[in-house]
Design a protein that fits this description.
The protein folds into three domains: 188 residues, 3-Layer(bba) Sandwich (FAD/NAD(P)-binding domain), CATH 3.50.50.60; 109 residues, 3-Layer(bba) Sandwich (FAD/NAD(P)-binding domain); 105 residues, Enolase-like, domain 1 (2-Layer Sandwich), CATH 3.30.390.30. Helix 3 crosses helix 5 and helix 3 packs across helix 8. Helix content is 31%, strand content 24%. It is an alpha/beta fold. This is NAD(P)/FAD-dependent oxidoreductase. It comes from Labedella phragmitis.
């Protein structure tokens, strides 16, 4: 076949979910992919990174309990950690994902997809052969992002690691320099320090600048306690490699390392997908409306609205779970428009991924973990919200003290003074990820505080912090 109802460019989790919703709705779909079906998350991000981090987290948890600690006679086995990581990355083989596409009735076209006309995608295979695909209703761009390698003199020639190389390596470098203090940098500092590397983090713009400062401070203190050097406020001025990596700074300092990992942000994979054919600039983030139709420079949907973008490439929320949420919405709205069904584009409507703006949950799997959803104090101020900040020491919660000796952490919630509802939540501490979905529900459902007071947390659990936060707020 060369004609389908919907063509999806990109077979990561976002593209897969778009195509799945389309075929569930009774339409046909083809998905175009030039790399592994399953995308970044399956092979170089979510799954393998968390596999790298999990063994160390389990070991730390055991060591925080005296009886369990007495049973520990050794340290991490890097080879076993890497082997488990390999299993979660399916050994970088996509047979299982391809089989699933076939099972649910999604056509896979291997090669690089480019928009070459109205509702037309030309796919170029690795051998140069081309095939032209036509969509009856929609083309969806779900091409994701790639790591940025900044233009630091000598850096590219030094063959730096990006997240892909760091996540897929089976070698623990003796010395590792990480450039960038964001999520990738902090998680990889946690992982490689636990595996035995001497790690230096160079965070010119600060450590985890988008989370509450107290949460970032907990992570920095923990990393430093584990021997990680964290340098804030300066960045490399030059890099070279002559067997070892040499990193120079503007103030005259220098570092040597066996590997350098660059974790300074992401760029959209949109530079070679034919955006110029629809009047857009190649390499740009794709701006979308509330139902994820791509917008042109005039702020209106491109052409008659047949082009959509979902996931990281539209820059709304660069997280896999948010991309899959968008995918469900865009798949359903494409089916609705194709079949003449009503489009529910109200805020919080079925076809409108409103949570991208109000309730984006994220877990940062450092030691300690950071879990957050909704606004921080800084983002609430930028949004013009008048909020009251309530904080509580997690160490004072009975369930936390039982969870681990020496438990240290903090939680905070932001209360919208006008609506008397929670609009933001952050927690930092061991295993706080499990607190997050309760906060996500409270924010998404806009639960009034007087009703939330009746949600009684079980005792003794770390979730008791919800009661303590509400009591601190005066309820």
């Amino acid at each position: 076949m060369s004609e389908y109802d919907v063509i999806v460019i990109g077979a990561g989790p976002v593209g897969e979910n778009v195509a799945d919703r389309v075929v569930r709705g009774g339409l046909t779909a083809a998905i175009v992919e030039s790399e592994l079906v399953g995308g970044e998350c399956s092979y170089w991000a979510c799954m393998p990174t968390k596999a790298l981090l999990r063994d160390a987290a389990a070991l730390r948890a055991a060591r925080r309990l005296p009886g369990a600690a007495a049973a520990i006679t050794g340290g991490l086995d890097p080879a076993a950690v890497f082997a488990r990581r390999d299993r979660f990355a399916s050994n970088w083989q996509d047979d299982g994902q391809v089989g699933w596409l076939d099972q649910v009735g999604i056509s896979l076209v291997r090669g690089h997809g480019r928009i070459t006309g109205r509702k037309t995608v030309t796919v170029t295979a690795g051998d140069g052969a081309t095939v032209e695909l036509t969509a009856r209703h929609a083309v969806v761009v779900a091409t994701g992002t790639s790591a940025i390698v900044p233009a630091i003199p000598g850096l590219a020639d030094a063959e730096p690691w990006t997240s892909r190389e760091a996540v897929s390596t089976s070698r623990v470098p003796d010395r590792l320099v990480i450039v960038g203090g964001g999520v990738v940098g902090m998680e990889m500092a946690t992982a490689f320090s636990a595996l035995g590397s001497t790690v230096t983090v160079v965070a010119r713009d600060g450590v985890l600048p988008n989370v509450e400062p107290y949460a970032a401070d907990h992570v920095v203190a923990s990393l430093r306690q584990d021997g990680v050097e964290v340098l804030v406020g300066d960045g490399p001025s030059a890099v070279s490699r002559d067997g070892v990596v040499h990193v120079s700074f503007t103030d005259g300092r220098s570092l040597e390392a066996d590997e350098i990992l660059v974790a300074t942000g992401r760029r959209p994979n949109s530079d070679d997908i034919g955006l110029d054919q629809v009047g857009l600039t190649p390499g740009d983030w794709l701006t979308v409306d509330d139902t994820l139709r791509v917008l042109g420079a005039d702020g209106r949907p491109v052409d008659d609205g047949w082009l959509y973008a979902a996931g990281d490439v539209n820059h709304r929320a660069l997280l896999t779970h948010q991309g899959k949420y968008q995918a469900r919405a865009v798949g359903d709205v494409v089916v609705a428009r194709a079949t003449g069904a009503p489009v529910d584009d109200r805020p919080w409507g079925r076809h409108t991924p409103t949570a991208d703006h109000r309730a984006v949950p994220q877990v940062i799997f450092t030691d300690p973990e950071i879990a957050s959803v909704g606004h921080t104090v800084a983002s609430a101020e930028r949004a013009g919200l008048r909020v009251r900040v309530i904080e509580y020491d997690l160490a004072a919660v009975a369930g936390a003290s039982l969870h681990a000796d020496g438990y240290a952490g903090r939680a905070s919630m932001l209360i919208d003074e006008e609506g008397d509802r929670i609009v933001g939540f952050t927690a930092v501490g061991p295993d706080v990820a499990e607190l997050l979905h309760a906060a996500t529900i409270a924010i998404t459902a806009e639960v009034p505080l007087e009703r939330l007071w009746h949600a009684v947390p079980a005792y003794p659990t770390v979730s008791e912090v919800w009661l303590r936060l509400l009591e601190t707020a005066g309820l």
